[in-house]
Amino acid sequence: MASITFREVEGSSLKYWLLFGALGLFVLFGALAWNTMHHHGHVITGMDNQIVWGLPHVFAVFLIVAASGALNVASIASVFNKPMYKPLAPLSAILSLALLAGGLLVLVLDLGRSDRLIVAMTNFNLKSMFTWNVFLYSGFFALVGIYLWTMLDRSVKSWTKTAGTAAFLWRLILTTGTGSLFGFLISRELYGTGLLAPMFIIMSFAYGLAIYLMVLAAAYAWTGRPLGDAVMLRLKTLLAVFVAAVLYFVAVHHLTNLYFTKAHAVEAFILRDGGAITSLFWIGQILIGCVIPLVILLTALGRQRAWLMIACALVILGGIAQMYVTIIGAQAYPLDMFPGFKASSSFFDGEVHPYTPSTPELFLGLGGVAVALLMTTFAVKVLRLLPVSLDDATVAKLDQH
Amino acid sequence: MNELNTMTEQAPHSPERRRFVGAAAAVAGLAVVPGVMLYEVADARPEDQPASSAVRWGMLVDATRCASGCSDCVTACSTENGWTPVAQSEHPRQAPQWIRKLQLEDPLTQAQINLPMLCQHCAEPPCVDVCPTGASFKRADGIVLVNRHTCIGCRYCMMACPYKARSLVHEPLNDTQKPDVPRGMGCVEACTFCVQKIDRGDGTTACAEACAAAGHNAILFGDLNDPESEISKRLRELPTKQVRADLKLNLGVRYHGI
Predict the structure, then answer these.
(1) Is A241 part of a structural domain of the chain?
(2) Which domain holds residue A21?
(3) How many domains does the structure of chain B reveal?
(4) Is B30 a member of any domain?
(5) Residue B125 in contact with partner chain A when CB distance is under 8 A
């Protein structure tokens, strides 16, 4: 087996501390946003009794979904035994932990009573998908933590495959749980389908890998370590497959709805009449999130590092748009309590509900992203997560074994 | 009772007499039980007794009697339970509304229907299913409530409710709060079927009282489990519907004329 040297990032340069400081600033903004929301109540947000989950949920669910996807590279190495991916695995594991922590932080700080977190940790209703998610998140932290330990500590290295397999199976269940948060809701026309669980899994593959690729490229570029094309191009092809699969699931979801007359109105809202939601769907989710990245990844453009990074960034932006459409779009469309009747009331029944995110919501969400990146930035400084070199020659040696 | 007291005072430590006293008390207890049962149903429930599943509180709304433009039920609810009427709120989109008047129009025939919409007190409530902490719960007598102490404000119940019956308290509350209707910023709330009135033994809700006072009598409240209750009799006579009956949630609120 060709040996790979892992080494901590020195992290003493001005550039490192500038990055650290900038991320820290966003964490601080996030904390201030939470404090403001907690003090004044949700009245200062754009959320109301019609749009009950807003931008913080968009960020939180995106980060949680991306977290399980970021573990993919490690899973390919350990579970599917591809030696080429082994040097990439530790970063993959730490990134997934960091993204999950960031996402969960946003989720719990957006609670109406975020001071009652301990209640959520001590009172469980086992019929609630939310409760299941609490267990799934905790288990994910534990399993990926153990998995990371087996990768970093030679004395327990023989357990890597077992731990990796456990973490892989757990992440599949975890994302099933995240998708089912929405899939298990009967009341909204766009939810209440088992399709959301596998769809969220495939979305996680795409978002997680896109984030991973950007973090990997940034880490190597900023530390001056060599990162060859062999690794990047292999992952690029994988990303293309995942993005195409997301597109496929989205198409099946909407085509199924379009076949059912009762869902025509809500589909017309998302696909044609929904204003900002419709724009976010077609321009954000489909064009920016899927079509343009696919064009880049499947043509010669994708062979250039800069274009590959653009494709990854677009997948991430498209993913946030997709979450926005999934979470906000479904709530913006009014509940159809009396099919066949036009409803109106002081509680805005029968109307499309507008939503404009407020500044605190945006900064709370960005704070979660910053927490995830800050944790990763810190982890690569204190742990041996990154190989000294990932140039083509080093990687080629791995593949021969 | 006097006789028993005298006997126990005379020989407090005799085991035989103690047994006798016990048996006598049990017999006396049995004799009183039917009275207690009646008392429980018809009158205030003692604080140390749990709600009974012998009762299922429910509501019949006769939409054909619900007057257009009248919102007495809404006003009465807000007064009884201490929530600010939406017209007086600075943030109408975020203001809680425990009950609202819904206007329905058939686009084909222009036929109009008015009705109050509130928590339907489902027998199988989706809000209770999804609540992570168990703060959303259904009482034995069918009333669906939120435990103000364990609600964390996650709003998952609001996502799950097919009737948009729940509201989050978005801002600090003013001093309109009622001592027997606890509320709080960051918690979710909804119609409680005036549980404080039920437990006091009023046997009805503020909205039903207001509707009757206005002479409309469109809202009838009572025990669905009691075949002799007025609501049960009326439900036998009138054809009624459950809103979104396709969800099979077995609602505590039934509508006539929709």
Answers:
(1) yes
(2) 6-400
(3) 2
(4) yes
(5) no
| pLDDT given for residue B252 in this prediction | 98
pLDDT of residue A3: 74
**Residues B88, B165: one domain?**
yes
Question: Taking residues A360-368, what's their average pLDDT?
Answer: 98
B93 or A82: whose pLDDT is higher? B93
A184 touches chain B (CB under 8 A): yes
**Does A188 contact B91 at a Cβ distance shorter than 8 Å?**
no
Q: What residues of chain A, 103 to 122, have a C-beta less than 8 Å from chain B?
A: 111-114, 116-117, 119-120
Domain assignment of residue B108, yes or no? yes
Q: Which residues of B224-258 are buried (b: 16+ CB within 10 A; e: fewer)?
A: bbbeebebbebbeeeebebbbeebebebbbbbbbb
B57-62 and B136-138 strand pairing: unpaired
What's the pLDDT tens digit per position in A289-332?
999 999 999 999 999 999 999 999 999 999 999 999 999 999 99
Rg value, chain B, Cα = 22
Two structure tokens written together for A269: 């809202």
Inter-chain CB proximity A113 and B129 less than 8 Å: no
Number of domains in chain A: 1
pTM as predicted: 0.91
CA distance B159 to A203: 22
Does residue B226 share a domain with residue B164?
Answer: yes
Specify if B48 maps to a domain.
Answer: no
Residue B227 and residue B189 share a domain: yes
> Is A390 within a domain?
yes
pLDDT of residue B12: 44
Task: Return the CATH number at B220.
Answer: 3.30.70.20
Domain with residue A187: its CATH number is 1.20.1630.10
Asked whether residue B249 falls in the same domain as residue B134, the answer is yes
Q: Is A260 at the interface with chain B, CB within 8 A?
A: no
The answer on B89 and B212 residing in a single domain is yes
Predicted pLDDT at A375: 98
Q: What is the pLDDT of residue B38?
A: 46
Domain extent at residue B27: 2-42
Per-residue tens of pLDDT for chain B, all 258 residues: 344 443 434 444 555 655 655 566 555 555 555 444 444 444 577 778 888 999 999 999 999 999 999 999 999 999 999 999 999 999 999 999 999 999 999 999 999 999 999 999 999 999 999 999 999 999 999 999 999 999 999 999 999 999 999 999 999 997 778 999 999 999 999 999 999 999 999 999 999 999 999 999 999 999 999 999 999 999 999 999 999 999 999 999 999 998
Q: Looking at the domain assignment, is residue A1 inside a domain?
A: no
Interface test with B, best of A35, A39, A43, A135 (most B CBs within 10 A): A43
CA distance A387 to A114: 40
With respect to residue A69, please indicate whether it lies within any of the assigned structural domains: yes
Where are the extended beta strands (E) located within A180-308?
Answer: none
- Give the SS3 label for residue A45: coil
Structure tokens at B164: 């948009």
Q: Which pair of structure tokens corresponds to residue A71?
A: 């573990």
The whole-number pLDDT of residue B45 equals: 76
CA-to-CA dists, residue A225 to A85, A201, B189, B210, angstroms? 17, 32, 56, 77
The beta-carbon neighbor of A129 closest among B105, B130, B188 is B130
Out of A53, A185, A346, closest to residue B97 by CB: A346
Q: How confident is the model at residue A2 (pLDDT cuts 50, 70, 90)?
A: low
- DSSP character string of B224-252: TT-TTSHHHHHHHHS--B-TTGGG----S
Q: Are B160 and A186 inside 8 Å of each other by CB?
A: yes
Q: What is the mean pLDDT of chain A?
A: 94
